[in-house]
Specification:
Layout (H helix, E strand, L loop, with lengths): L1 H20 E4 L2 E9 L8 E9 L5 E8 L2 E12 L2 E6 L3 E3 L4 E4 L5 E7 L8 E8 L4 E9 L4
Pfam families: PCuAC
Protein name: Copper(I)-binding protein
Organism: Aliidiomarina maris
């Protein structure tokens, strides 16, 4: 009996941890969404993760908000005049049946005017809004600067 309780507890904890890192809404699956810890003195932060579109239609993430910052913008890195630059975009399109990865040096969520430094081990709420009016609520952890 003790062995069964141990196995069931392990399965519950594993499923709880897995479900915390994956969320679904409107055919979109968010996987391993996280915030990068703040560098000392930083006023802004960045969020990353993978979005899988399991629907037959493109899905557009048009805005985001969080209790970690005053605003959340959708950004991408681009090459301009031989240098990398960030630019805000109106929407992140996740094509039907495909995935888009947000990562350092590419697409990312920019958390502007942080309310406090992002510290490893902390978690924050993140709401993503889609062009069809739906939204997705996530709890995202802060992970180390270097991964």
């Amino acid at each position: 009996m003790q062995k069964l309780v141990t196995v069931l507890t392990s399965l519950f904890l594993t499923s709880t941890l897995f479900s915390a890192s994956v969320a679904h809404a409107s055919g979109l699956e968010a996987e391993d969404v996280w915030l990068r810890e703040s560098v000392p003195g930083a006023e802004n932060g960045a969020g990353f993760g993978v979005f899988h579109n399991h629907s037959e239609e493109d899905i557009a993430i048009v805005s985001a908000s969080s209790n970690a910052s005053a605003d959340v913008e959708i950004h991408r890195h681009v090459h301009q005049h031989g240098q990398m630059a960030m630019e805000q975009i109106d929407a992140l399109i996740v094509p039907a049946g495909e995935s888009v990865t947000l990562r350092p040096g590419g697409y990312h969520l920019m958390f502007t005017q942080l309310k406090q430094p992002l510290a490893v081990g902390d978690s924050y709420e993140l709401t993503l809004r889609f062009d069809n009016g739906d939204s997705m609520q996530l709890t995202v952890p802060v992970k180390p600067l270097l991964q």
